Amino acid sequence: MLKENLFTGNDKMTALEKSNCSYQMMFRYEDAAVKVEILDCSPGLDSSNCRHLEVADALVIVYSIVDRDSLKAAKTVLEHLNKRVHGAIPVLLLGNKTDLEHARQVARDDVTLLAHQFKCSHCEVSAAESFSPVNSIMQQLLEDGIQFRRTRVGQVKRRKSIFENVSRRLGSVFRRKSLEGSPPKRKAPHVTNNINRRSV
Ligand SMILES: Nc1nc2c(ncn2[C@@H]2O[C@H](COP(=O)(O)OP(=O)(O)OP(=O)(O)O)[C@@H](O)[C@H]2O)c(=O)[nH]1
C-alpha cells in the first residue's frame, strides 16, 4: 500500500526511495533528521520477514476491508509478535479500501476486538480516495517508533552495563580463587649481570 507519493506535500518527510521491497526516507523529528526504512513484508510471513518484524521499531499491519483472509493474515502477524517481541512496540492495524464499503467482508467489531486483544491502534482508510489521513497516521506512527527505539536502545545499554558489571565481579572472584589455589610465587632472582642478554 505504500506508494512513492504517499508522503508528498508533507514538510516533515522527504524523498521516499524504493529498492525492492524497501523504502527509505528522511523524517524530521525534534529538529533532527532521522533516516527511516520502510519494509514491505507482504505477501506473508517467512523466516526473513519474521526477523524484520522482530527488530522493527514500529509496524503497520494492513488488511483490506473487502478481504476476510487479509484480516486472518493480520492476526497471524499479531500472534507472532505477541510471542516474540517484548515491550510495547507501536503497532497500527490499518484497514484499507473503505471506498468499497458496499463489498465489506471484515466486520468492524472483529477488528475492534482484535486491536483490543493485541493492544494496538486501529483505523480504516481508503488509499485510493485520499492519502492525507494515511499520511498523518503514518506520521504519528513514525514518532511513536522513534520514541520506542530510544527506549529500546536505552534498555540494551542498561542490560549491557549490568552484564559488564557482573562479569567484572565474577572475573575478580575467579582471579582471587585461582590465586588462593596456586603455590606462593617465588621471588625472581635479581639479575645484576647483563652480559648474556640478547636483544631481539
Ligand atoms: N478500491 C481501492 N483499491 C485499492 C486501494 N488501495 C489499493 N488498491 C488496489 O489494490 C490493489 C493492491 O494494491 P497494492 O498497493 O499492490 O497493495 P499491496 O498490499 O502491496 O498488495 P500486494 O501487492 O498484493 O501485496 C491494487 O490494484 C490497488 O490499486 C483502495 O484504497 N481502494
TrEMBL record:
Record's catalysed reaction(s): GTP + H2O = GDP + phosphate + H(+)
Pfam families xrefs: Ras
Sequence segments annotated as region (Disordered): 176-200
Enzyme Commission number(s) of this protein: 3.6.5.2
Residues making up the signal peptide according to the UniProt record: none
Keywords linked to the UniProt accession: Hydrolase
PANTHER family: RAS-LIKE FAMILY MEMBER 11 (PTHR45704)
Family: Belongs to the small GTPase superfamily. Ras family.
Protein name: small monomeric GTPase
Organism of derivation: Pomacea canaliculata
